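Below is how a single chain appears once it has passed through the pipeline. First comes the sequence as given, then the structure the pipeline wrote out for it. We keep one example in the README because the format questions we get most often are answered faster by looking than by reading.
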Amino acid sequence: MKFLQSLLLLFFPFFISAQQLYEQTVRGTIFEKNTLQPLPSAAVIVHANEKQFATTSNENGEFLISGIPVGRCNISVSMLGFTTFVSNGILVYSGKETVLEIAMEETIFALEEITVQARVDKELPLNKTAVVSARMLSSEEANRYAGSLTGDPARMVSGFAGVVAANDTRNDIVIRGNSPSGLLWRLDGFDIPNPNHFGALGGTGGPIGMLNNNQLANSDFYTGAFPAEFGNATSGVFDLRLRNGNNQKHEFLASAGMNGFELGAEGPISKKSGASYIINGRYSFLSILEAMGFDFTGGGGGIPEYYDLSAKINLPFKSSNLSWITLLGASNITAKSDFEDPTIEWFEGERGGEMKMNNNQIFTGINYTFRFTTATRLENRFSYQRFGQTIDQIEFEYPSGKILPEYGGKLKNIEERFAWQSSLNHRINPKNLIKSGIGADFYLYEMKTTWDKIILNNYSGNSTLLKAFAQWQHRFNNSFSVIPGIYGQFYTFNNDYSIEPRIGFKWEVSPTTSFSLGSGLHSQLQPRQVYLYEENGNLINKDLKMSKSWQTVVGYNQKVGAGMHLKTELYYQSLFNIPVIPEIPAESILNLGDDFYNQWNYIFVNEGTGYNYGLEITFEKFFDKNYYYLLTASLFDSKYEGYDKIERNTKFAGNYAFNALFGYEWKIRTKSLLSVNTKGAYVGGKRFVPVEVKSIYSTSSEMYEFDWDKAYKDKLPDYFRLDLNVNLKQNYKRSSIEIFFEVNNLTNHKNLWYKYYDENRQKEEYIYQYGLMPIGGCRFYF
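Resulting structure:
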């Protein structure tokens, strides 16, 4: 209570101004969710401050209601033949118009059954062909979650069932015991490269995300057995969507926080046609955090710098739509051993080092959608991406500083991709929907790695991945549907291919109870560096096959009250064709992919297997009546067999993960909203390979080697973290200000990151993750 009183005193100047009712416009577009066809004459009702506002959509499916009081409002949209849309707790503030995109689902009914009850399905994904292991990530809901480092989408999903996040330094998404490298990132329907600063080629995570949550629309997150339209992934899919800019009014954003400056703008290109733009840029200044004692390198001693820009232009036409998106990012860091640091004891002859890392990436894509009829549309996507990374490391001797040329090395990875994807959506009737597509990814790459004077790869070349899918959604009635599908891909580099059948069932026993089942085969190419590993000028791993995973999920969902639901899923995944290492028979590629630099330079063979199984429980209340909560429990196991055919735990087999999120919001007079959000996480520790220390009898020193007989048998101590987020939104007549303050690891709990054996000091050293970390800032909307 004293803490809340202190917060109120801190924000008191915002509350004492004269009481005045501020208003804003709520508008949007209503369309059929499968065909994207605008729906005219839909009835729209908005409830705010015990008042009701009503209108209908025009011939373009657009509606506008002005004079809505700032704060929270509820909206419902109804139309004959469609399930009523209801959404509660929509935020309205004076510095920005509230613009909604509302997708409505056509109903199937007999002539005497023309009334369909309103329902809210926030727990379900936007993509209705996904019936298991999928949920929508609401951008407005997710913004409340504590522990997201003020808006990182990857960290926002860390509280969902099946997801394990026990590394403060990175945002890798570990799903159901799988390596994070099995994740597919998508943006507006485009497959995109790793969207994180300081990311590695072949990885999917990093310390800081490039994507800006202010630009995101509602998106879908999949944790397994996903539909046939997604491929080249084995653990999950994060299907992000960028919102369109305001097509009637220019709006701006300025933000400053501990992790950077941000500027944003959006507005109409043509009010008549509805064309719009939106753009955001960010520049880091983590040197401030460095001066406060926080090290974003996890002990590396350098100050990371990063910059990013994201933009979207949307051009609607009478029977078509053209959109363009781009995502740019650059990051660099220099870390150097400091022989003058009095807190470190150096030994004569000990090696220090200097590492310079530079990353840059570009993604840009065009999507042209043409509607042949109200039931048929064709989407064509063309994109280009470039990922570049250089690492330069030298080592030198203490105390002379003499450079040791036999150690260190250089890495240069450049990968470009030209991609095309064409998909056809056709609604035969309200019961049947068909979606199919073909595509091709053309890769160009240049990779050179030299370490300790050994050339690990030096290759330039190209390859093509051909892809195709087809899926059919058949609704027997409003309660039961089946979604069969098939996906296939062919890799020209080694003529490897995969054909993957998939199927999903959903049965809504009642308006409050549903069962679902999903099953299918999924495959993924190996990281490019694996294929390009060289020995004596030969590509040793060129003929490696794709990793494969057959996944089955059974789900149960029960609505237990207004805006509340209980969801349970059981799953089993069988992994085969897994690359393992004859040189290290106990290791598997399933244990790689979660670091700043991953060691892929081995000879691999497709003789490994594995399996994952588990139970996941979610109990959730969506934001309503000023509060929300999300409770998740994941119990799971993850096993593999290496080249030696011995079954072991995977590195990510933490066995359990529990998360609790809660938030409450107060309305201060008529102009301000104050929210307090918390998140607690208790996660099983990551597994590791211990070292075996051996004495050298002729000297007083010791040597060590990895004890592979005990590989991944033991875990690091369990991970615990409590986070707090406080957010104040203050409205003025034509602008709004948002002040946010977040404290990660509120209890300053010491979570072990990793441990290693120090040969110079002849003892085991422990490296801990972040302690208590405050992050704050403000955003100004005008």
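The chain is about 5% helix and 55% strand.

See the next section for the split statistics.
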